[in-house]
Amino acid sequence: MARAPLPLETWGKIRRTVTLAGTPAAVAYYRDLDGKRRRLLRVGKSPAKAEEALKEALRDRLSPASEYITPSSPLSALAKAWVADLDKTKKAAGTKRRYKSVVNSHVNSHVGAIRIQEATVPRLQRIIDLVEESSGASQAKILGIVLTGMMGLAVRNGAIRDNPGKNLRMPIIELKAVRAPDMETIAELYRRLAAYDAVAPVRSGSIRDLTDFADVMLATGGRIGEVLAFQWSDLNWETWTVTIDATLISVPGEGLVRGPLKSAASRRTLHIPEFVRPMLSKRYKSAVVAWVFPSANGGPRWPENVRQQWRTALRGSDAAWMTPHDLRKAVATALGTEAAMRQLGHASTSVADRHYVEKTLLRPDQSETLARFGSFRTQLKVANK
Questions:
Q1: Is the pTM here over 0.70, yes or no?
Q2: Separation of alpha carbons 179 and 174, rounded Å
């Protein structure tokens, strides 16, 4: 009767031996991922050292992630493996940061000790519902996405058969109506920004140039990270165009750097309107660093610092509700959905339509076309006379 083969990715009995030169060695047969039986030998200063070296080599050869991710592994271990996988993807840096933040805030902190085999649909659903109550639908939805991705990794590594995340009820996020600043609000914005820029900063070396920054935001419709990532080499002075091919991202251990854009559609070359050209020329003539909007020390400027200055400048005004991001909405609303998609760097018109272009309640005048239905009322009146 034929001997049963070894289970996939396992090894048989380890046998101690010596090489032809008399060196202590250990040898074993293992069944590889492709199902084939192979022999592996390692040597050492002693038989025990040789066996230890062989076991390490076998583990390295035959240890898929499933050896470390098992049904009894805690969700914290699964989350760590999932984040490592996430870093290898081409997802936007901002998306990765949000996912990692949710892992730290809600997975590791609250449910990290739960075992994978205990992470049933009802349990995961209760976790999502609790987060929705405490932190809102948006955070809960991201948590659902993260948990679904994590459990998918567990399925791929053989820790569970089915992904419970696929049966979760995700929170419904109600979309708010887009509010884009009108020309009157933008005029108030510029008055406030100019007043803020005109006051000498309290902190030595601090830069106040919010009006210039707002100019470029409105001239391009760029994201705040894209605009702050602009370098003079991105501008073509002959054609008056600017190429957006980077954004600012925070890298642990490195700080703020120019990084990849959110998507391939985000890379674009835009024409620069007349109204910002004199300002850009003036800044270029006095520039001593590569950045169009440098920080006080000559490096890239943190977006949150700009947002903080922005809030301070608009505090107490009719434009206080505005953020730099709202200037993208102003641009999108002025251009319309189709043109906004291209200018703002979206992959489809749906994003601009749902999140950036303000909808007007007043529809085109169709009264003349609809007037034809009134003829029936006229005929009825004549017939009743």
A1: no
A2: 15
